[in-house]
Design brief:
Length: about 250
């Protein structure tokens, strides 16, 4: 069984694969102060709840955008799973040719998303990942990673609004009944949901114009469903894209 680990700035996503089938998936909060032992206790508890044990894991693959936690999860894999993890980075086969000025600057999660999107949807394709940052990754018809865009994420943007505007309350992020809000909560929901959807659509259209052809647009990440519901350019939502990409890259390298 393969354990796929995606370490993001906000969450750590753990996926367990039996062959190509995702058996279980869990989401933990990213905490740089946690040790390998801390994370091992959490993961073991989650596996126990579904009747599985760490001894069943015979492979591991890791992508991390939090450098201090790479060593933590490497230690977890070697100490508790008894496997050497495949860590996404330079010199790893991904099936994607990176045409960035400096390929080492591209986050591991973005390369993983690109590999999965091209395998699942072909090209050209844009991956919009709604994480701590909202990232746009562009993959050509030939499977080349062309680059993309990075914007502030919905979560951190709204948190900044709550903290800096004393009279604005924290709200549930959901689609409001109308664009023209009739109260403070609906007005905030409108500005956030429709505002970010407009940003996404504008960037996707500009990217398509530069490409000179219409790409497929795939959304992933925590708030993908919410924005996709009001977006004019997002064609598919794939919440498992990154985890599936990790499995694909693992298979390319083993």
């Amino acid at each position: 069984m393969l354990m796929a680990i995606d370490v993001g700035n906000t969450n750590v996503v753990i996926g367990l694969f039996q062959g190509e089938e995702l058996q279980h998936q869990w989401r933990l909060s990213t905490d740089r102060s946690r040790t390998a032992d801390d994370y091992a206790v959490l993961i073991k508890g989650l596996m126990d709840m579904v009747g599985m044990s760490m001894e069943e894991v015979d492979g591991a693959v890791l992508a991390s955008v939090v450098p201090p936690l790479v060593g933590t999860f490497r230690e977890l894999c070697s100490g508790y799973l008894k496997v050497k993890p495949l860590i996404i980075g330079p010199n790893i086969k991904t099936g994607v040719r990176v045409l960035y000025d400096n390929p080492r600057e591209v986050g591991a999660d973005r390369i993983v998303n690109a590999a999965a999107a091209h395998r699942e949807y072909g090209g050209p394709v844009i991956v919009v990942d709604f994480g701590t940052a909202t990232t746009f990754d562009v993959i050509s018809r030939q499977g080349e990673y062309l680059g993309g865009a990075i914007a502030p994420g919905i979560g951190i943007s709204t948190e900044a609004l709550f903290h800096r505007a004393a009279k604005l309350p924290k709200i549930e992020l959901r689609e409001p009944p109308s664009v023209i809000g009739k109260n403070t909560i609906h007005s905030m929901q409108s500005g956030i949901v429709f505002g970010f959807a407009g940003q996404v659509d504008a960037l996707n259209r500009r990217i398509a114009e530069e490409l000179g052809e219409e790409p497929m647009v795939v959304a992933t990440g925590g708030l993908a469903e919410l924005v996709a519901g009001v977006s004019e350019t997002i064609q598919a939502v794939d919440p498992l894209l990154t985890i599936k990409g990790l499995r694909i890259i693992y298979e390319l390298n083993t």
